Structures are given as structure tokens and as C-alpha cells.
Amino acid sequence: MITTSTTLGESSESVSDRSVIFADNYLNKLSGEKIEHECRRRIETGCRELELNFANTEIVNSIGISILLGVIDTASNKGARVVFSEVNDETVELFEMLGLTNHVVIE
Amino acid sequence: MAEHSNKLIHAFGALAELGQEITNKNNFQETIRTSLHLISGALGIMRGSVARYSRFGHELNMLAVRGLGDDFPLSLSLCSEDERQFLTNGLNPIEIAHAKALPFFQVYDASFERRNLQLFLPLVVRDEIVGALFLGEKATGEAYTSYEKEIICAMGQHIGVAISQRNLMAEIERHAEQNRKMFDDMRSTYHDTVKAFAAAIDCKDKYTEGHSVRVGRFSEIIASELGWGGDEVEGAAVAGYLHDVGKLTVERKIINAPYRINAKESAELNKHPSVGFEILQPIHHPFTDVPLAAKYHHERLDGRGYPDGLFDREIPFIAKIVNLADSFDAMTTDRPYKARRPAKDVIDDLQRNAGKQFAPELVTSFLGGMLKELSGENRDKRFRRLLGREYMEAEGIAEKLRYTLNEMAPTTPMTYVAAAASVGEFQIH
Ligand SMILES: [Fe+2]
Ligand SMILES: [Fe+2]
């Protein structure tokens, strides 16, 4: 079963108990905190696996990293798994360097 | 090595962004929130917070918090020992695990440990604690390196300066507010003093009780009808309140004489404008030349006034205002030897003497103000309060005012003709 919602402007969809959120370019601004709230909301409503899709994300800056760390923290507190998908090589390198890959699965 | 330089590049990017964020004059709360994101994101720090130090409450109050949970205290107090140590330490990160000797770390030990906080950075700006950073573990799980600590110091300095600037701004605003209040206080003290003087002057003259206060009010009306600003209108009121202050030195029996006074007594009484000037001259009056108003309030445009027999343009404008207010009050108040005159008479008198005793533009402004009240355009009841309802509502006054004003300031030659024709005395001068 697939449901789609467009609450944030970034498209997001739910596939069974895995939630997919598209990061887009929100992650470079303070408004990216909305993504964090959305992730938190889903985890709190029972989602056990959260997929963040970076297909439309070119660059993740420091604010983006901080927001992703917030998502990771919330997920680990609730025992949920976080998956990053379609991340470009440069960004994977950055995630590795800063230790995000210690907490998430990159698909 | 490549990773090390990549890390540096990433961190410097964040530092540059932080500098920009702080100089951008955004909303302060947002700036602080962004700063915390930038530090966390620069070094991959899982959680942390930025606090502002309150000098008065001796406490660190959280401005931005990330990942510390709901049970983390939002306000942490410092004792004087902590303060002293932090000041000595300056803007350098303190490893929380190695700082257990300080009271601050003992008191909050459990909270810090629960959230795995590792670094504490007192934000010391110009020898003053303005805030602090609390930083948790890194996502890599590794210890903070010395270069990372340096980056944290640099970023902390930016945030410290932002908080310090914000504090300064708040202080400046507070001072401005205090100054404004003090000025208001002084202003009301000045007014109370002026009113007390007016009451003292009026006390001496039992037949013209309240004269100075009324002249103050009438002067105020004239000034506001002229479109003057608030301060200037206030100045005109003060000039009116104090115009007869010189009477304080005139013998009571002359002022209170229930008959027309003789020449000698009159000479004595006529000194009051100059005496008033002498009394008022040493005092600084903020809004208008009050001493000149006192000195020349008995001068006339045609040069037949006293003390100096000045002509129109030689008389200070404020003195002309007070002169009109003074004469108007004399005509509309009962005197021992004379009952007050009906409003229509008074209006006639003002018109007749415009250009001789009174400045015509002041007469029209004043009468215009009166008409505004009668027609309901002005609802302040300024005249009714001073002259009594009955006096002001006598029949035909509004009409009389309209006619007089039209005659004194015809908008076109035709209105002049029409106005004159309506009373059957059409004349061309
Ligand atoms: Fe006088
Ligand atoms: Fe007077």
C-alpha cells in the first residue's frame, strides 16, 4: 500500500511501515527543521524505518548535517532505523567523515 | 591527511556562514538557533545548547537546545566560585569529565552525564561571561581533537559577541526608556510648579480667581488652533499661566481695589509685566519664551500698550497670544465694578480691536476654535469648561461667529459682499 502526502512541499510517501521523506534542498536552511519535525512525527506515530531520499539534494551544508543528526538522535531514542538513499558520492564522503554513517544505513 | 583537510574545509565553511549569519542582523533567537546548527553540523556533534548568562540572576538560561531531552534544566545557576573560575579560564573549552571539582559540574553532574555532554565553553567577551556552549558527543564517537576545540573557540567567540551586542542593545533601549521617563517626570514637575505659581498669583486677587489658569488654557487653545506642535502648545499654556507673576509684588489692596484705581496705583500695577520678566528670566523654560510673554502681554499692535509701547512687529508672537487670552478672560469674567459681557459683545469687541490691540490671525484662530466646539467639530468642550455651558450656549453665538469669521477672512470677494449685504451695511473701504 502506498500513500502520498505533500505536507512540507517536499514529497513524501509511506510504504508499509517504512516512511520515505525527500530531503530536497531544504537541508541547507533553517526551514529544514521542518523535515526534522516531520521525521519525529512519523517515528512517534509508530514508523520503525525512516528513509531519507537525497535524489534531489545536491549539497548538504552544516545546517543540513545538524538537522540529520537530530533525526538520527530521535530515531535511536525510539529504536527506529534510518536509511539514507540515493546520496551522491561527495555527500557520502561528508557523512563518513562526520560519523553519520556510524548511525545510518546508506542504500 | 586528505580527510583532515576536508574536515577543515567543511568546518571553515560553517565558520564563514556563522560570521555571515551574525552580521546579518536577523532575529536574535534565530541567529542563535542557526549558530547551534552550524557548530553541530561543522563537527558532527550529536547534541548541545547555547545559553545566555544573566549577570543579575547568576544563571545560564538556554537560548537554543538540540537533543538534550525534556528533562534537561533550562536554567543553570552559577556560584561566585564558578564565575571566578570561568572568567580565569576565558573562552576555552572545558572537558566536563575533568572538571568535577567545580561546584557547577557537581550540581549538574547527573544531567550532563545522562545526555553525555563532553565540552563546556564559557563565552567570555571583554572579561565578562555572556553565555556558554554545552556540547555532546561527536557522531564518530571519537574524542574532540585540539583543532576541533580551536574551531569551537572561534565559533564560540562569534556567538559570544552576538550575545554581548544583543545585551548592549537591550541596555541602550533600557537607558533610553529611563531617560524618557525621567524627562516625563521632570516635565510634570515643571508643570506642577507652574500651576502652583499660577494658583499663588490668583490667590492674591480675590476677584479674578482662576484668572492665570484660564489665561493659560485660552493661550493653549489659540496655539493649538494655530496648528502648533504639542511642545509649543504646552509652552503657550505655561506663558499664560505665568503672565501675571509680577503681580506677586504688587500690593494686595491695589490688585483687590473694588473701584477704578487712581493714577499712582495704576503706575504701581503697570510695573507687573517688567517685574514678571525679572522673576522669570533666570528660569530656563523649555518650550517658549515665557519671560517675554510676561513682559509684553499688555502691549498693543497700535503701540498704545505698556510697558514699552511696542508696535505690531516688535511684539513677540507669544505675547500677542497671551494678550488675547488675557483680554478675553477679563471680558468674560465678572469684576467688582463690572459684570461679564455677553459672548456676542465679546466677539464684536475682538473683531473691532483686531489690528488695533489684537493680531487678526489670532482672533480668527481663536473664534474659529470656539465655532468648532459649538458646531460639534471639536468635542473637547474646552470653552464650555472655562466659560460655563449656559454662557456658551446662549442663542445665536454660532451664527455670530460664522458671520464674524466670514467678515474677517472672506474666502472670495463675493462672500464678503454676501456677508455684508445680509446685515444691510454694505460698504467698500
Ligand atoms: Fe497682566
Ligand atoms: Fe492678566
Explain briefly what this protein structure is.
The complex is a heterodimer of chains A (107) and B (429). With 107 residues, chain A is α/β, with parallel strands linked by helices.
Report on the architecture of this protein.
The complex is a heterodimer of chains A (107) and B (429). Chain A has helices at residues 33-44, 62-78, 89-98, and strands at 2-5, 12-15, 18-22, 49-53, 81-85, 105-106. Chain A has a 6-stranded mixed beta sheet with strand order 1-2-3-4-5-6, with helices on one face. Chain A has a single domain, classed as Transcription Regulator spoIIAA, CATH 3.30.750.24. Chain A is globular, with a radius of gyration of 12 Å. Helix content of chain A is 36%, strand content 23%. In chain A, α1 runs parallel beside α2 (62-78). Chain A contains 3 helices and 6 strands. In chain A, β4, α2 (62-78) and β5 form a beta-alpha-beta unit. The model of chain A is unreliable at 1-11 (pLDDT under 50). The longest helix of chain A has 17 residues, at 62-78. Chain A is an alpha/beta fold. Chain B has helices spanning 2-23, 28-43, 80-89, 103-107, 109-114, 146-204, 211-225, 230-242, 252-255, 263-269, 272-280, 290-296, 317-331, 343-353, 360-374, 382-387, 389-392, 397-408, 413-422, and strands at residues 48-54, 59-66, 75-77, 94-95, 119-125, 128-135. Chain B folds into 2 domains: 2-174, 2-Layer Sandwich (Beta-Lactamase), CATH 3.30.450; 204-420, Hypothetical protein af1432, CATH 1.10.3210. The N and C termini of chain B lie far apart (105 Å). Chain B has 429 residues and is α+β, with helices and mostly antiparallel strands. Chain B has 19 helices and 6 strands. In chain B, α15 (360-374) packs antiparallel against α18. The model of chain B is unreliable at 422-429 (pLDDT under 50). At the A-B interface, α2 and α3 of A face α1 and α2 of B. The structure holds fe (ii) ion (FE2) (2 copies). Residues 211, 215, 243-244, 326 of chain B line the site of one fe (ii) ion.
